[in-house]
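HAD family hydrolase
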Amino acid sequence: MSEMIKAVVIDVDDTLCMTEAASFELENEVLASMGRSPMPRSLHLATWGEPLLEAMPHRSPGIDLTVFAPLFQTTMDRYLEEGRLDVIPPENLAALDELVLSGRSVMLLTSREGHEIRHMLEPDHVLATRVSAIWHRGNTRHGKPDPRAFDELLAHSGLSPAQCVYVGDSPGDAVAAGGAGIAFIACMQSGVRRPTDFDDRYVTASVAAFPEVVAVVEGLSRTRR
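Tokens:
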């Protein structure tokens, strides 16, 4: 008999909250403050999912990252204060509540750096009572699409891959989960990616919107009883 799903692990950007469009606007604002030309949306989309400081030299060739990084942080803090970034839709929060009420742990696994996720670690954040752990590039040794991105999560929680399911929006998310032996749910809510972008070998299920994850997890659990 297969093991029951005890944990739902979730990607942040364009899965739990819709991030790409706001990030595109934010990054171009920083580029403008540096006197640099704006990047086209097509380039941002093509490099979306890469760690920010690895993607920026592609998005703006020749950029001085030592100048960009602090300006980005300052601008990001303003976007957060203004409610223009990392806004989690109420229906997604409700879905998290349902997952928690079902007795499952909810964790986040993101490719963001620690400083890009620190606001979500605050005790007064809406995720504080819903999410048991947040894994990012600051507390993991490997990043997606490397399957070892889950190593710390699995070791710390004591869970087996069969007891987890990962929800993400990118082909790299699917590859990482599949390589780690974790079921993967592809979330298409952002519209950034399409089902044809994914390798079917790594996709357990696909949802049009994040709240549908609750029913999918329940369905997977029933088939394992």
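The two ends are 7 Å apart (CA to CA).
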